[in-house]
Specification:
Elements: E1 7-10, H1 35-44, E2 48-54, H2 56-59, H3 65-78, E3 85-89, H4 105-113, E4 122-125, H5 128-136, E5 140-144, H6 149-152, E6 162-164, H7 167-176
Parallel strand pairs: 1-2, 1-4, 2-3, 4-5, 5-6
Helix pairs in contact: 1-7
């Protein structure tokens, strides 16, 4: 299955791209300008990159899985195929599924699919649930202030290791402190 590799579990909306509220069309995808440099920094420091994203718009009927896959394909093209895998939860918040963040289902699925060095891995996102996901898995965490990050920094149940202005600042911190 390959060698165990440290991994960055990235939230998508608000962390990698602008959160437009139920992103349902590839043409509405806007990747933050600093993301390519951040992902390159992670890659050059030996990190695998995986997106873990709640996508209740599918469960709400706003868009379907094919639209989600088209958005991810466009993201991969714009990011030079830097993302190693995408995991998503299509369920509504109150369905009690195991995959919806901050539950561990997407991380567990990633661990089944890839040899992950959990001791060297991180979760980076813009919401309290991203911090909770990481801490629930025993991973180190960074909250970015893009997306909902600035407002969520005041409602955190538990503190991340770091609060960073954006994904590039998070990448610089992680690669210097891993």
């Amino acid at each position: 299955m390959g060698r165990y590799q440290k991994t960055i579990f990235l939230d998508r909306d608000g962390t990698v791209n602008e959160d437009v509220g139920y992103l349902s069309r590839p043409e509405d995808l806007y990747i933050f300008p600093f993301v390519k440099e951040a992902l390159s920094l992670f890659n050059s420091n030996g990190f695998r990159l995986m997106v873990v994203t709640n996508q209740s718009g599918i469960g709400r009927g706003v868009y379907d899985e094919s639209a989600l896959h088209a958005i991810h394909a466009k993201m991969q093209k714009e990011l030079d195929n830097a993302i190693d895998a995408f995991y998503f939860c299509p369920h509504l918040p109150d369905t009690g599924c195991e995959c919806r963040k901050p539950n561990l289902g997407m991380i567990e699925a990633a661990k089944k699919d890839h040899p992950i060095d959990m001791s060297g891995s991180w979760v980076v996102g813009d919401k309290d649930i991203d911090v909770e996901l990481g801490l629930n898995c025993g991973l180190r965490t960074v909250l970015v202030e893009t997306g909902y990050g600035r407002s969520h920094s005041g409602i955190l149940r538990r503190r991340p290791e770091r609060i960073a202005a954006n994904l590039l600042e998070a990448a610089r911190y992680i690669t210097n402190h891993n």
